[in-house]
Amino acid sequence: MSLLREIQNDAVNSDVKVSDLLRKCKILAYRLGNIDFKNWVEYELNGYPKDIIDILPDYRILNNVNSKGHFSGAFGSGLRNADMPTFNLPEVLQESLSKANFYSPIATLENLASSDISVLTQDWKPIIIAHYGDNMYEGYVCMQAWKIIPTSFVIGMVDTIKTKILNFVLDIEMINKDAGDVEINSNPIPQEKVSQIFNITISGNVQNLASGNSHSNIQQTN
User: Fold this and answer.
1) In 3D, which of 94, 148, 90 has the Cα closest to residue 121?
2) Contact status, residue 18 vs residue 110, Cβ threshold 8 Å
3) How many Å apart are CA 179 and CA 31, to the nearest integer?
4) How many helices and strands in the chain, by DSSP H and E?
5) Cα–Cα distance between 154 and 5 in angstroms, integer?
6) Which of 16, 102, 109 is closest to 65 using CA atoms?
7) Residues 115, 116, 118, 123: is their CA dihedral positive or negative?
8) What CA–CA distance (Å, rounded) separates 141 from 3?
9) Is 117 helix (H, G, I), strand (E, B) or coil?
10) What pLDDT, on a 0 to 100 scale, did the predictor assign at position 206?
11) At what angle do helices 151-175 and 106-113 cross, to 10 degrees?
């Protein structure tokens, strides 16, 4: 069976992990000799860097995120799991706290997606709490805050990656059905055509995939 057909079969098999599917895509990327596809596979396998602007794909960003927090008050009073009002924060922080970015390797996300936990969290940065923790509720100071993330979003993200891979290899096969079974860097398809297919089926908003790689993890707690 050709490599392209193997990838297609794995992409429609719910028992195949996306991390394993991406390793086959890595072989394909080297045989195609396409840098954009190579880097995308590496980022998905190893995690996305946090210090390169606009590199995180849209499907790894959750918008309209709500947050909860614990507050401490006078004489032992407090608030538990209270909604976090952000309207009095600087606009740039409001925007940042309304989103959850997922930088972790796909294997980490797959484990989260297969867990029995219905809600995940991402902690607020301590420096934000230190600067603005006493501006949320009168008479109370924020001790801890976190973003609320439905596990269903992570499940959808993992499924999206599988679909993108399937669309990519199907389009590649339409041009050259033997493209996955050639020697490395033999360019069985013109690079500009591979890049065009990549941009249409996979990359979305990603602009800087050729800018290097870094291993990054997000903080997640139950």
Assistant:
1) 148
2) yes
3) 8
4) 8, 6
5) 27
6) 102
7) negative
8) 58
9) coil
10) 45
11) 130
Paired with 67 in beta bridges are 147
pLDDT score at 204: 62
- Going 180 to 182 to 188 to 192, the CA torsion angle's sign is positive
Low-confidence ranges of the chain (pLDDT < 70): 204-222
CB 61 within 8 A of CB 99: yes
Name the residue among 165, 173, 206, 187 with its Cα closest to residue 54.
Answer: 206
Whole-angstrom CA distances from 211 to 27, 125, 207 are: 20, 27, 9
Half-sphere exposure in the Cβ direction for 79 (13 Å, CA): 20
Q: Tokens 């297969």 appear where?
A: 114
Residues in the chain: 222
- Report phi then psi at 220, rounded to 5: -140, 135
**Whole-number Å distance between alpha carbons of 49 and 74:** 42
Structure token digits, residue 49:
């860097």
The two tokens of residue 165 are 């891979």
Per-residue model confidence (pLDDT) at position 99: 94
Q: How far apart are CA 118 and CA 149, in angstroms?
A: 9
Six-digit token pair at 93?
């922080």
Residue 171 has a pLDDT of 97
Give the amino acid at 219: Q
